[in-house]
Amino acid sequence: MPGTKGMYVLAGICGAIATLVLAPAGIAGQPVTQPLNPEPSSLYTCKTVGNGFICEGSQAEPYGPQDSGIVCGSGAGTFDPIDQGVETVQAVRYYDASGDLVKRVIHEDEIGALSNPLTGTSAPYTVHVTNTDVLAVPGDFGSVTETTTGNQNITAPGMGNVILDAGRLVFDAGLIDLEFSAGHHAYIDYFANGDTSVVDELCTALGT
Fold it and tell me: Are 134 and 100 in contact (CB under 8 A)?
């Protein structure tokens, strides 16, 4: 399914991975005395471990207001819910004894809301996602396979969950094609498969 990864990232209200600006994690250990491939940002903190090297960093950053990509309503009442919140990211890179990256793990937690720009009505959400990248060829991101696990819950007063997206996804090298899917992935249904019914309850909660 070409393009699924991009659609899921957009829909899952995750997108900061590619442009992380991380703060040092302050981990203790022996300093790294050789080049790492690919070289981590200077904002990572790296240390030597028994079988290689580990680099860690974290950040908390607000995002939005921005277009969610979802369309609600019809005619004059059509609107795109606005997305806004705060994302906390913790990233860990694992390098082998040669200094080549073999794995990267990124934990994302978000607290935010989707809102109707016409009325201000909002529906809060939480996101908890872990992305694990494994490089078949150490140091070569072109050989990466990514596994995404986690959930996003969007709720509305008196309605409970209006969207629940949870489960596991595995993307091939290049992060383009979806190789495996388990769970309930409303956003893939909406953005990739065109099933607009998955946002009906959300749109109702926001006032359509």
Answer: no
> 28 or 63, which is more confident?
63
Reported as a single tens digit per residue, the pLDDT across 41-54 is 878 999 999 889 99
Q: Return d(Cα 132, Cα 205) in angstroms, integer.
A: 34
**Cα separation, 170 vs 99, whole angstroms:** 26
pLDDT band at 26 (very low <50, low <70, confident <90, very high): very low
- Indicate the average pLDDT of the chain: 87
Rounded to two decimals, the pTM is: 0.81
What is the SS3 string spanning the chain?
CCCHHHHHHHHCCCCCHHHCCCEECCCCCECCCCCCECCCCCCCEEEEECCEEEEEEEEEEEEEEEECCCCECCHHHCECCEEEEEEEEEEEEEECCCCEEEEEEEEEEEEEEEECCCCCCEEEEEEEEEEEEEECCCCCHHHEEEEEEEEEEEEECCCEEEEEEEEEEEECCCCCCEEEEEEECHHHHHHHCCCHHHHHHHHHHCCC
Query: Cα–Cα distances in Å, from 58 out to 43, 74, 93, 118, 200?
Result: 9, 41, 12, 35, 36
